[in-house]
Amino acid sequence: STKKPLVIVTRKLPEIIETRMMELYDCRLNLDDHAWSQDELLAAVKEADVLVPTVTDRIDRQIIEAAGPQLKLIASFGTGVDHIDFQACKAKGIMVTNTPDVLTEDTADMTMALILAVPRRLAEGERLVRTGKWQGWSPTGMLGHRIWGKRLGIIGMGRIGTAVARRAKGFGLSIHYHNRNRVHEGLEEELEATYWSSLDQMIAHMDILSINCPHTPATYHLLNSRRLGLMKPHAYIVNTSRGEVIDETALLKALQNRDIAGAGLDVFESEPKINPKLLKLENAVLLPHMGSATIEGRVAMGEKVIINIRTVMDGHNPPDRVIDMMF
Ligand code: 8YV
């Protein structure tokens, strides 16, 4: 019988996925689930036929150039591929796949949770109860801002942005979006969505902004201090995409100065490191990159990874081949 391909998985995955992978492949797993160092990644790509990294692995040019000639596929466990140097992979003929679609709805749910949590001060209220400081109900206690009737501006109207829009519409928000391309007419009609070709113009008119675009060279610090300065002082921003899309230092300043009303962040520029000054802000809801963290979603992501590996190993085009990084 022919030798099974060596599949190296950088992080602990759901057990059902690991079991299946071990049945199919010569599989090396990361049993203690620590995030690998550059040296551990270098050692892995020297041997692996298939590498299964996650968002916590920086698959940069140095790693790709050190890869052995046997490395065929990087089957990333996740949708965002900004941690992979795609050009370097392309130059070496290494295929890249990701796991889109299966985490769209979960991430949109978490985005909606932040859209509700920040203006309604959910986390602050919870802290008040937990710290024993709640004095009882009062007509003016814990007042936030209502969200229904307000304008939501979605930056990046792809799969997740669209799923956020559907939810937000149900909560009575009006939907606005900025995207490189206008979405099709039927979708705009369904969502009663307004397209803004100018991001600056949209930002200036929104009550809540939601970041749902990928992190690419074109979206790095898309929300810089100038653009944050265009936001209305009572406006909120939520980010379930990538920390790098917002200039975090500029955001911190805007929040500290109350130039904007609040932020809900599931992702950070140097996660898991968090600027300690962010932790001091009552008007920020901070989550540990858990937008897609459901048991069902993780299993579905693992199934996608397996299908991608299998199709490539069988000599076919995988369903989730990443064609270009510049989306
Ligand atoms: C995952 C994510 O936690 O898929 C993404 O792009 O950011 C998250 O859903 C991560 O990718 C796992 O690798």
TrEMBL record:
Domain named D-isomer specific 2-hydroxyacid dehydrogenase catalytic: residues: 28-322
One MF annotation (Gene Ontology) recorded for this entry: glyoxylate reductase (NADPH) activity
Coiled coil start-end: none
Location of the D-isomer specific 2-hydroxyacid dehydrogenase NAD-binding domain: 112-291
Organism from which the protein derives: Aestuariispira insulae
GO cellular component assignments: cytosol
Name the UniProt record assigns to this protein: Lactate dehydrogenase-like 2-hydroxyacid dehydrogenase
Pfam families for the chain: 2-Hacid_dh, 2-Hacid_dh_C
Superkingdom of origin: Bacteria
Organism ancestry: Bacteria, Pseudomonadati, Pseudomonadota, Alphaproteobacteria, Rhodospirillales
